[in-house]
Please model this.
Amino acid sequence: QVQLVESGGGLVQAGGSLRLSCAASGRSFSSYAMGWFRQAPGKEREFVVAISWSGNTYYADSVKGRFTISRDNAKNTVYLQMNSLKPEDTAVYCCAADRSVTTMRTRPVQVDYWGQGTQVTVSS
Model:
């Protein structure tokens, strides 16, 4: 079992920055692909970014160049640095973990573990 706890959300003005953290409990964190998804009110959940166990990263086009994912296996934590935030980035951001980064990118409904989410609100 893996438990995921997000933190770092909040209210920020457009153009500002936030850093989200996702702390994982359980064994074998380093063998999991980790990712972030988001869901805005009235919209479906969408993939934001993922990082494989080996450090390869994959970004949604909408955040490429603005968001950066990283992981610290010693701390069992994955981070999402969000810069140049836009009002359309407003959503609940959820951390996810799965053995396969391909599953995370293409079949999120099959992802093994999810966090509860943290609210990010970007004001214009």
